[in-house]
Amino acid sequence: MTTIEVAQLLEMSESTVRRWARQKKLPHFLSPGGQYRFDEDEVRRFVEARRVRVSEVMRQLEAT
Question: Could you tell me the sign of the dihedral formed by the alpha carbons of 24, 37, 5, 19, in that order?
Fold first, then answer.
C-alpha cells in the first residue's frame, strides 16, 4: 500500500502516516525508490490492535 492509500484507510493525513512510519509506530518498508510502502495485512493488524487499546481505555473510563 502507498502512503496515500494508508492515509485514506486510517482517515488521517499523509504527513501523519509518514511521521508514524519514521517513528516506527506503523510497520513499513521502503521501495527501491525510497518511498514508504505498507503491507495491507500489517496495516489491518495495526488498526485492530489500536482499536483494542481504545476499547480497553473506554471500558476503564466507563467503570469509574
Answer: positive
How far apart, in whole angstroms, are the C-alpha atoms of residue 6 and residue 16? 10
Grid coordinates of 27? 510497520
Residue 62 C-alpha cell reads as: 466507563
The SS3 assignment for 2 reads coil
Q: Is the pTM of this model over 0.90?
A: no
Domains of the chain: 3-63 (1.10.1660)
Residue-wise pLDDT for 6-21, tens only, equals: 998 888 899 999 999 9
Taking alpha carbons only, the member of 36, 7, 41 closest to residue 22 is 36
Determine the Cα–Cα distance for residues 34 and 56; give it in Å rounded to an integer. Answer: 37
